[in-house]
Amino acid sequence: MTSLLAIDCSPRYELSTSRKLTSLFVEKWRAAHPGGEVVERDLVKTTLPFVDLPWIGGAFTPPEQHSLESAAAIKISNDLVGELQAADRIVIGTPMYNFTIPAVLKAYIDHVVRVGVTVVDNVGQLTGQKATVILASGGDFSPGSPIEGYDHAGSYLRQVLGFIGITDLDIVLAGSARAGMAGETAVEEFGEVLALAAA
Fold it and tell me: What share of residues in the chain are helix, strand, coil (percent, to 5)?
């Protein structure tokens, strides 16, 4: 059975453009893959500790050497990695904060980029998967825009996902999202783009 992992990280919920677009992607994916499984990971509702010393102990020592503290610290990372490994498709919906990604998404990345697990000898292990990143921003960072180069979120996500082996990646730039809050830009205008991405 084919599966989709849908990751959201905006704290704005019903007001969030990225969440609306992720939901639209999931809807289009379900239509294209009847019977497919969707796993939803809401990072705002997931308690994601930042990397600390017990986590490092858990990540860089064999399980049989883990202290109780290290075992507990690395468990969520193991769960998130397993979830990611099991997915055929991945969609990440995120806002852009100050030209990059929210802290909670960076914390997620720090949990799933694991030496010896998702990266071995600098070779990504999550090959054969396809991902779509939906990046909602207040400004227009599309190619040719005067501020195109300010988009560090898209380039970072492409680099870090590629590092763990996910190189088949589409980035949907949902720019001028603030206009959408005022009704000037409809979420539906991205429907065709997302339908193609979800196919």
Answer: 45, 20, 35
Q: Would you give per-residue pLDDT tens digits along the chain (199 residues)? A: 799 999 999 999 988 889 999 999 999 999 999 999 999 999 999 989 999 999 999 999 999 999 999 999 999 999 999 999 999 999 999 999 999 999 999 999 999 999 999 999 999 999 999 999 999 887 777 777 787 787 889 999 999 999 999 999 999 888 765 554 443 454 666 766 677 777 7
Indicate whether 44 belongs to any domain: yes
In this structure, what DSSP letter does residue 125 have? S
Q: Which domain holds residue 42?
A: 3-51+81-198
CB 58 within 8 A of CB 70: yes
**Identity of residue 166:** I
Q: Give the domain CATH number at 42.
A: 3.40.50.360
Number of compact structural domains in the chain: 1
In a domain, residue 65? The reply is: no
Task: Output the CA angle 129-154-141, nearest 5 degrees.
Answer: 140
Using CA atoms, how far apart are residues 44 and 26, in angstroms rounded to an integer? Answer: 18
> pTM score, two decimals?
0.90
